[in-house]
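testing teh design pipeline on a random one, pls ignore if ur not involved
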């Protein structure tokens, strides 16, 4: 028995094949077999120098960042450990000492 790919939109496992297309019954998305084989790569996040970041990396902030609602900015040179990558505009989730949980853009950090 062949395993069918998960839906690229909603990650549903209940996909089926119909006339050369894969169909997701949960969200209604249809895609061809060529699309599923060429776009299975995960998203890539790069720091300000072009180094590829991964979950668990440590990074340094490269410029002072103003924080909405906080009296002090995050200073240049602040080290952030154990980052988690997410697929959104602010693509790094982390905890910064003195600030707590924070979302950062990868263009404002460099890998240690």
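output:
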């Amino acid at each position: 028995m062949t395993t069918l790919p998960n839906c690229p939109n909603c990650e549903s496992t209940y996909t089926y094949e119909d006339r050369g297309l894969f169909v997701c019954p949960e969200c209604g998305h249809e895609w061809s077999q060529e699309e599923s084989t060429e776009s299975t790569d995960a998203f890539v996040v790069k720091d300000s120098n072009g180094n590829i970041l991964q979950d668990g990396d440590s990074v340094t902030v490269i410029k002072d960042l103003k924080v909405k609602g906080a009296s002090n900015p995050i200073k240049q040179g602040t080290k952030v450990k154990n980052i988690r990558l997410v697929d959104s505009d602010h693509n790094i989730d982390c905890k910064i000492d003195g600030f707590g949980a924070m979302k950062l853009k990868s263009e404002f950090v460099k890998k240690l």
